Amino acid sequence: MILWSPHFGKSEYPITGAEQHVFDVAIWPENPVVEHGGSLWLNCSTSCQEADARGGLETSLMKEKKDNGSHWAVFQLVNITEWASVTECSFSCYGEHKSVQANIMVYQIPEHVELDSVPIMETGKVYNLTCRVASAAPVQLLTVTVYKGTKKLHVETFENHSAPGASDILVTFPITAQQDNHMEEVTCHIALDLRPRGQLLEKKSFSEVLKVFGKLQVPYYPQLHTLRYVQANSNLSVTCEVAGVFPAEEAQFDLKFGEQILNASITLSGNTVRAQAQVSSLPTGNYQLNCTVSLGPITKSAVETVHVYSFPQPSLEIHPSEALVNNLVTVLCNSSAPEPPSFSLQIQNASGRILASSDEFPLQLNLTAQEEDNGQEFVCEVEFKIDGITITKHTSATLTVFYVPEMDELSCPSNHTWVERTQQTLHCLAKGNPKPSVACFKEGIAYDVEEKKKQVDRSQAGIYNCTATNELGSSTRTVTIHVECK
């Protein structure tokens, strides 16, 4: 209980009749401060000298008279919920009435101070920081400050707020996201300054951590590095990188080869981040290689098509593979592989001489079969050039040429000179396909050209008719043998 009785001193001079009834009325405290819903003690007193001077406290608030004495009374105001009230202390003295009012300030500490969740931000974009203050009074004495770390970003006051009582306050402050804002803490502080009548009341929100990410713009889109053409059942290396991003360490990669999710290893180099992975045992087909990079709210993708080829051996066909001499022969070189960006076809002979070439499927060579083409090996070679890699496949086939027997001076010389009693053999060979047989006759008597050497005598001298024969025909040559006598 607070009791207060002011001392009113006596004058040293005589007091006239009119002056004898001069008195004062006081209330204490004159400018009380009370929390909304709280209670307050007020002391009313007077300097009136009338013994039965009457006084009281007039108010719309709930009151209880707690104590009184000569020329004073103490009251307690309870459950004060009116924001604006009239509380008047009055006394009547010798028929004169005087009163004085207490200027009661009712305040309310905000129930909570909240800073709205801050979205993940992209550098250069503008975002709003929103602070919410619930049920503060008197708003005119409220200050809201938004801090980034210890730095004040924004201060807002409400001196011109006119609505009585407690109000919800919304403070919005725009901020342009910068890289140096990343991982900074932002808080909302409120100060309800009741001084000099009361205290300085403060409260703050939970902090929000700013997350700022750099833009993924050209040329900062993901870059895929891999072979676009690869042989089946081989391994493929894949690299996806993005440069000039912030913060690079928070970039998230999603690498997919077709429907297969790749397990990538991540490496950092400055503001460049790189994901690397391997794809094994590739089956044939066309596949979408997709690299998606997520950096905060930003997602960018890069896509490449990878062609997985199985390059079979080329085919080589000779039509007909068995031909008569001077007939037309077609040599066809082809491949069943899908056409890559760069390839070439060649038909070569066994010694590697190029007989025909093309960059289109199939490659055809037409020729007239000659005797020298018999047994000729033709080679079909396909060369694929893919992403700087050369892949060569080849196959071969042999041409058979049929022709009638032929004998010439080299294979069956027309003249022989033998010396009597020496060992000699009649050599007479024939070319032809099928292989011809050779028979020589002298005056109707056969001479075995395949017989081993035998001794020469004069009877062997003479003219021989040698005939080479195969299924296609025959050829005859006259051979003369001269025998020199010893």
Automatic annotation (TrEMBL):
GO molecular function annotations of the record: integrin binding
Membrane topology qualifier: Single-pass type I membrane protein
PROSITE patterns: IG_LIKE
Domain Ig-like per the UniProt entry, residue ranges: 405-480
Keyword entries, A-Z: Cell adhesion, Disulfide bond, Glycoprotein, Immunoglobulin domain, Membrane, Repeat, Signal, Transmembrane, Transmembrane helix
InterPro entries: ICAM1_3_5_D2, ICAM_N, ICAM_VCAM, ICAM_VCAM_N, Ig-like_dom, Ig-like_dom_sf, Ig-like_fold, Ig_I-set
Gene coding for it: ICAM5
SUPFAM superfamilies for this protein: Immunoglobulin
GO biological process, one term: cell-cell adhesion
Name of the protein described by the UniProt record: Ig-like domain-containing protein
Protein family (similarity comment): Belongs to the immunoglobulin superfamily. ICAM family.
Transmembrane segments: none
Any Gene Ontology CC annotation: plasma membrane
Subcellular location(s) of the protein: Membrane
